[in-house]
Amino acid sequence: MIKESFIFFVNLSILTYYYLNTQYKMNFELIKGIINGIYYIYWLSAKNPNKKEIKNNIKLGCETVFNTCKIKLNVHGYKMDNIPIIYVANHHSYLDSVILKYLLPNVHTIAKDDADKEFFLSNILKDVFDVWGVILYKRGNKKSGKKVRKLMAKHINGGGSILVYPEGKAIAIGGPKDFYPGSFEVAFNNKFLIQPITLKYETDITWGEKSKFSKKYHLDMITNINQCQKQINNVNVTFHPIINPNKFKSADIMKQYCEVIIRDEWINRHHYTSSSI
Prior knowledge:
By secondary structure, the chain is α/β, with parallel strands linked by helices. The protein contains nine helices and eight strands.
């Protein structure tokens, strides 16, 4: 089995190199970084890895992405990762999940059910999503939404944490958009703590769904990597103070409060205790 897996990965690497070299004319070092990233993706699709191996390889995989994309993380505020909590973050890039998984390795993530189709190697990523703790949500489907809310409550009551992008999708252009109410209703009804997170990219390397002002590198992964290569890309990640649902009269008021906090930080960049990664 090990031999067959090794042969498969070698063949996959050769095909990836040929494709990137012929279609995108990438240099060897950049292609090597992408292939290393594919290795960690491929490894994470293996069955029954132990928790320590998962955590180590997720960290190495994330660091490979950061190095390849020249990303420097500037972390602000106080990260709470030792209590059950719902993290809510704005969403400007598919890289957001890599960044937050690196900072919060034990967190589970809510994602729309076609997320695995937005990347190449989608069949492998289905298994990777299971290892990463991704809970898929069919947007606009009441039955799926009800199921996800139950899964969220069960996971948090069991001592885990959940990451939610309440905008519902990665929007590369412009500031944070209006939030969907679901995650706030779960928090309010179950008295779960919330920690808002603001992500702000200082360079134009965001990557998400198509909009009126999208450029090619906002839509295509490989073109986006080439855009990242042009400079050092500082990404500010701000962990805001914990929000207790008991302080609010309704889930909607709590949602609006989180929207204001995240947008204000995105626009004004306040001074919090910070560290660089």
